[in-house]
Design a protein that fits this description.
66 residues, single chain, globular, two-stranded antiparallel ribbon, mainly alpha, 2 strands
Length: 66
């Protein structure tokens, strides 16, 4: 699954540390999501979308099964 989290976070001028603090996760979690090494739980995906006032599908792009 791809995502636009880094792009959206930078547009909103928020650091990984600041976003992690708000979401109550580690900065490494935010970094891993942004780099595609980790897919967030559905709960975390909802929290991210709620924070940015966006729909999940605007942030996370599901590309289907290979």
């Amino acid at each position: 699954m791809k995502n636009r989290l880094a792009e959206i976070r930078k547009q909103n001028e928020i650091s990984q540390d600041e976003l992690a603090e708000v979401l109550k996760v580690s900065r490494q979690t935010i970094s891993s999501i942004e780099n595609g090494r980790y897919n967030p739980s559905i709960t975390l995906a909802f929290r991210i979308s709620h924070f940015f006032k966006m729909e999940i599908k605007e942030i996370f792009i599901y590309e289907g099964e290979d």
